[in-house]
Amino acid sequence: MNKKETYELLMKQIASLIEGEADNKVGVLANVSAAIHHTFETFFWTGFYLLNKENTLQLGPFQGTPACFNISVGKGVCGTAFLERRTLVVPDVEKFPGHIACSSLSRSEIVVPIYNKEDKAIGVLDIDSTQLNAFDEIDAQYLEQAMRIMAAKIYTNQ
């Protein structure tokens, strides 16, 4: 199965996993991070940072090794993607100005902003790999779709 086919199946799995679970946000975030993480062998860390207080993204459910608790909006890959409201694909984290190294094992990263139905950014999906150049436009396209599917279910009134 190629990457697109794998993502197509993952989109169906995510939709099925979260169906009827709008009131269980933590559970939805946990299961979505697990589904994404365990679908791809190259994903070292997969999880969420959620806007908790002004200018701070706080660690949410994740799969992987321990992580940074708080990231300021505008700082590192997560904070930059959130502030700029765009998906960031970073082929080599060592070359990203201001990269926050929560783990020295991380070599590449993709960060996808999450929006509520009012188009307000409320957090990010963060995925790290131990391999350089692990992410591309296919990952960006499908992970953005996954976040739209998820947010439509659990972030409708936020």
Description:
It is built from four helices and six strands. With 158 residues, the protein is an alpha+beta fold. Strands 3-2-1-6-5-4 form a six-stranded antiparallel sheet, with helices on both faces. Helix 1 packs antiparallel against helix 2 (25-39). The N and C termini lie far apart (37 Å). The model has no long low-confidence stretch (mean pLDDT 93). Residues 67-152 form the GAF domain.
Brief overview, please?
The protein has 158 residues and is an alpha+beta fold. The protein has four helices and six strands, in the order ααβββαβββα. Helix 1 (3-18) runs antiparallel to helix 2 and helix 1 runs parallel beside helix 4 (137-154).
Write the layout of secondary structure elements.
Elements: H1 3-18, H2 25-39, E1 43-53, E2 56-63, E3 70-72, H3 76-84, E4 88-90, E5 108-115, E6 121-129, H4 137-154
Antiparallel strand pairs: 1-2, 1-6, 2-3, 4-5, 5-6
Helix pairs in contact: 1-2, 1-4
Question: Regions with pLDDT < 50 over 5+ consecutive residues?
Answer: none
Mean pLDDT across every amino acid position: 93
Q: How many angstroms separate the termini?
A: 37 Å
Strand-residue proportion: 25-35%
The biggest sheet, with number of strands, parallel, antiparallel or mixed sense and barrel status, is:
6 strands, antiparallel
Shape, per Cα inertia axes: globular
- Based on DSSP secondary structure assignment, what is the total number of beta strands? 6
Helix content: 25-40%
The computed structural class is: alpha+beta
Order of helices and strands: HHEEEHEEEH
Family: Belongs to the free Met sulfoxide reductase family.
Pfam family, one: GAF_2
Protein name: GAF domain-containing protein
GO molecular function, one term: L-methionine-(R)-S-oxide reductase activity
